[in-house]
Design goal:
The complex is a heterotrimer. By secondary structure, chain A is mostly helical. Chain A is built from eleven helices and no strands. The two termini of chain C are 20 Å apart. Classes of the chains: A mainly alpha, B alpha/beta, C mainly alpha. At the A-C interface, helix 5, helix 6, helix 9 and helix 11 of A face helix 1, helix 6, helix 7, helix 8 and helix 10 of C.
Chain lengths: 285, 705, 318
Amino acid sequence: MTEVAALAGTISRRPRLPRPLIVGAVIVLVLLVAAALAQVLAPYPFDQMHIRDRFSPPSLHYLAGTDEYGRDVFSRLLIGSQLSLLMGVSATLISMGLGVPLGLLAGYRRGLTDEVIMRALDVLLAFPPIMLVLLIIAVTPPSLLKTAFAIGVLSAPPIGRVTRSVTLNLMSGEFMEAARARGERVWYVLWRELLPNVWPVLMVEASLRVVFAVLLGAVLSFLGFGVQPPAADWGLMISNGRSFVEQAPWISLAPGIAMGITVIGISLLGDGLREVLDPRLGNRR
Amino acid sequence: MNDAVILDPALLEVRDLTVRYAGTAAVREVSFRLRPGEALGIVGESGSGKSSIAGAILDFLGPAASISGQILFEGRDLTQLSRSDHRAVLGRKIGSVFQDPFTALNPALRVGRQIAEPIVRHLGVKPSEAARRAVSLLREMGIHRAEDVARAFPHQLSGGMKQRALIAAALACEPPLLILDEPTTALDVTVEAQILRLLARLRQQKRVSLLFISHNLGVVRRLCDRVAVMYASQFVELGSVRGVLERPSHPYSKGLLASRPPLRAASRGSRLPAIEGQMPGSPRPEAGCVFAPRCPYAEPRCSAGAQALCELGAAGMTTKTAGAHGVAASDHLARCWKADVVGDWPRQGVDAIDQGPFRAGDALVNVTRLRKTFTTRGGLAAWRLSVAGGRPRLRHQPVQVAAVDGVSLSISPGEVLGLVGESGCGKSTLGRLALRLLHQTDGGVEFDGADLSQLSGADLSAFRKQAQIVFQNVGSSLNPRLSVGEAIERPLALFGLAKPRARRQRVEELLDMVRLPPTYRQRYPHQLSGGERQRVAIARALATEPRFVVCDEPVSALDVSVQAAIVNLLADLRDQFGLAYLFISHDLAVVAQLSDRIAVMYHGRICETGTPAELLATPRHPYTRMLLAAVAEDTVADEPPQGEPISGQASGCPFAARCPHRLPTVCETTAPLLRAVGASHEVACHLEPSSATQVDAVLMPSIVT
Amino acid sequence: MASYALRRLGTVLFILVAMSLLVFLATHALPSDTAALILGQYSTPETLAALEHKLGLDLPLPVQYWHWARAMLHGDMGQSLVMERPVAPMLWDAFGRSAILAVAAMAIVATLGVTTGIVAAVWRGRWPDHAVSVFAYLGISVPEFYWGLVLILVFGSTLHLLPTSGIGNLSDGLGSYISFLVLPVATLTLGFLAHVSRLTRSSMAEELDSMYVRVARSRGLPERVVIVRHALRNALVPTITVLAQDFGFLIGGIVAIETVFAYPGLGRLLIFALQRQDLPLMQAAILVLTAVFCLANLCADLLYGVANPRIRHGGAVD
């Protein structure tokens, strides 16, 4: 009896996880599993054409219908999830690889270093986002990795800014001064004292960046500057289906819905994380 | 109800007020009466629930709070009013002033307009007329350039000025009741004294009743008629200010009063009485006496039944419980069945060993003509556009401010030097310069005979090991991502002070040294209270086995009872390890408790140094006198503090602008040098002749004319 | 305030120069050979060299940049290689048509987004708040061109209510002209509306929780006054910056949406230039779009300065 009461006590004292976090985490988990096992889960190879079943509407046979070549849309969606997640994650990793060190450096060194780094990031931010990507991609033949790189470069300024602002905040923290009073080396301070504190905020920002990369990647594929056919990219699928939107709307609509679920899942996860980490975090900028 | 109540109607009567958040009580069965023109102080430590009382009256607790009981204001129960009816009473009948003047004004509206707003709203006065009244209200608050202040935006005003403006807004409709929630806590002591003086004057002139909420007993003593002591959601004692502060009856009140350091020099062996343990967090036990776990007089019976607020004088059990609704006619109530029999708070270890005064040896730390300037507007922001002679010109104008301006002092091994001053006077910068956390602009710091600025490599590391720092902000002094064990272990690993296997044991020794159990090794900072965090920070500093520790306001963020325990701990460690401290604080009483010598700092310079006894008994510098007058609890200072700390740069005496004894030319043009006036007493003031004979004559106004 | 404005202006000029350099260098790294493109299959090494000399392509890069930038500043954007017409008139026509879309969408986003954000913040945790946040999640979950497709499907293909591609002719009457704008503008609006209303909600909610709002309430001011005069004024300041940033995304959105709705604006012109590797057209289009974005940011910065008394009025009064 007392044990139950004690248990109830600990449960009620532990803050409950916010619902967005749980829903978001479940969606993202399902997506990751689906993408990882896409080749196994897909009922058909993504490029197999069923000439007799062109434009068939969604049915038990073809869960999301078939496209103009009779390819199974659902299988293509599954394979496409790999591309989308790959785009989102690789672009975000690139932006973090660029933004985090720059932000840490700017916040830690301050002064002229800070000024130079932040002005450089400002110039990047002053480009309308899509222009820079278009410029880079127009100059050289398109490839997924290059698109990811371009988007990653574009996302570096916000990551850098967030890292810098958190770092600046931490720098005024007295534990940082205690570290300096011990004569700690720079790398120890950055790695052991700063980074673990920047991490949570970065995770929230990273979720925004993944969403941004997925959406921008889709726009580029849609415009024909991203992944090239016959790849099963969601943006490309929407673009291809555009010509048949009246007779076979599912070709375009299904990838959009898949993308919507992905983006909502990641956004919910990010918002939930924000709520858990610190209710005041939302106002950090 | 007896006749007395009807004959003497209360302006505000709170009956059995209980405020709960998700079932946990923040305020429990609080009852009190406030008569017209009366001032009631509510005193308690942070988390005691005192602000929730104001919140319930002012309706800002939000939907998460459930309120029961009655709040009768002029006979109407505020808890029963609709939101808009309640709002109509606020501002018109009840004015309120809060702790932080820096966030309480809307940054986008001119100050005058914010004062005029309630006048227009409640009194139906035209805006132009209300604006005129706002200016005259500001003038009533003792502001000379009232028109300018009314036209200003909040960011253009200092903290003290903002608080005056907020008081003006609270009094705009001449309400009969003013609720003040820690109105002076965010301000410097001299400014605090000015605001308290203003409130005392307004109370007399306007016959306004005050409900004054504070953690500071001294402040309440100066302003209130009656006082309630609050602990863990309950009133534990209620009575006249004199009665409660001079003859406290509840053990908690006794402990609270005893643990506050007196404003006098203490011997090296003396310790402050402290209250062990800490206030229970939420959820709190609601059966029995809330203070029993920390009470030295507790017996099993105390935890058995709930305690009631009882009249004093009648013996123990036969005491009748107070009034029909817990409101008694008697003057002095305490929530303790033993209140009549408990003695004074135990002064354990106090004056245990008298070691005699400290004898200075060769200096461990030697600071000479130290100077540090900061560029407040530099880089790109320093470019300024000005129109001179009809032509626009772009100029690079960085602004330099001297935070430390030619300071010399020395600290011997084992000595405690107290450094006192108001916020922004440069005392923290001085502390950081002494540890080479900042680089000086000019002058030098020597540690153990070595020039700090010349140290590098192994020598610098050796210095870092010997000189450590303890900070004020208990919230950020520990890295939130490192456990207590990791935090304390780091210096051991860095300086190779213990072999990896022996580290854990050493960490536990260090924890024991600061009186924390070894299990705390695995805790994280957010699981600790403020006092515990400060203990861990001290353990971390001690891990390197230093000889010199800079304590930068180490107890300012702590509650009084916790503060005493930390001060005692610092004194114990000093004796145990022969540590030298540079003890930085704005609180003269705390500094006097621990220091062998005190230096008073104003605007980057030292204006007076001496032993605590010299400084407190015969303060020479007008600024020291002003500081003392501001914190003196019972006497009304004959020398009203003027003005506020300035940030500008002057060539003369930095204090000249605020000094009541300023000499016409010399003070404004020549900076005074420190001169000896006693054995160890030095003053930097033109009024001070180098001999110590004419002390009284110097401060007579006749000299000024 | 004057020096603040001057500093902002300086930053914008710096960014424009940096950007023009970037555009110039990037386009010069293009694999295509301009002279060969112009001469087509009839090129000989001699004619090529002659043309390269005539076009100034044999000069060192900094000189080429100087010539190009000077011409740009004089409004001479060169000759389109594919269409063999001057770029400037073509560009400005398309720019005008895109501006109509952008301005209409921006106006709707600014008014409606801010309003819904405030409503959500004031009724926090109740149904209007939930409705706004559901709408916001939907709005940002897919790229805007997808909403364009959905709208085409619903209002064009299914309901036959509105035209789904091209641009109206003013000679057919204003109503017809506007009918062509409805779907593109609605599509552009959707995503940004969600973003702006979400951010307005959070900044408004923050202000409503602030100490000075609590103090204003404790002075007995009615809730309406507290919301409008106190909280809103401060909440709108960050919204200005957000709107300016979103303007950059709006430009990106226009590129995709003009493609979806076959709307002959600057975005479609840019895509055309990129696909055909039409160097002068590409340079001019990117530079104009970027300059517009910079100007929008400058306006926002200046507005921010005006709305923020800390910048407008500097010094202390005591």
